[in-house]
Amino acid sequence: MRGASGGADSFSRLVSGVIGSKPDRVWPDEGVNIMKIKLFAIAALGAFATACASTPEPVEEPIPAPQPEPVYEPAAPTGPAEGSIEHFVETAGDRVFFGYDRHDLSAEARAVLRDQAAWLMTYGDTRITIAGHCDERGTREYNLALGARRANAARDYLVSQGVDPSRITTTSFGKERPTCRESNEQCWAVNRNSTTTITSGYTN
After folding, report:
1. For 85-200, CATH number?
2. Would the pLDDT of 40 be above 90?
């Protein structure tokens, strides 16, 4: 503000000179005019001084601190581990169902077995057991034989889809291990199945 202060001093001296000067000869009208000039000079000096006094000093803006980069954590895996028994059940399905006193494969059963074969081909170290099951009707001996035919039907289809037969064993439980224990058609339909169980080579 040294330049502004110097300008104010110069302007003040100029106005003081105007105010303090005495003309050699003053006519009546000239006296009035001189008084007006002096008053204007005083007002201008005051305004100039106020303007100089009210001019703020420049303020430097603070430099903002750099923001830390966001850290993204990878999402935790969800669902069963790939290659596990749970993964097999969830992605392929572990059983197919049969009609009453039948061991032929329905379209739905073949679709499930294709998914099983694809999973088994992906995880080539796994081995499986296919167990045949029946509902409670019929003799024990008859149902054991029927369960075996159901297990073999599932095994043969998996082999036709490229699964090595040495990786598959079959067994039959007949009507000895029912999933549902009520005596009605809904339960009997559930119990007529072949169930595929992963026995080795899976991921824990």
Report:
1. 3.30.1330.60
2. no
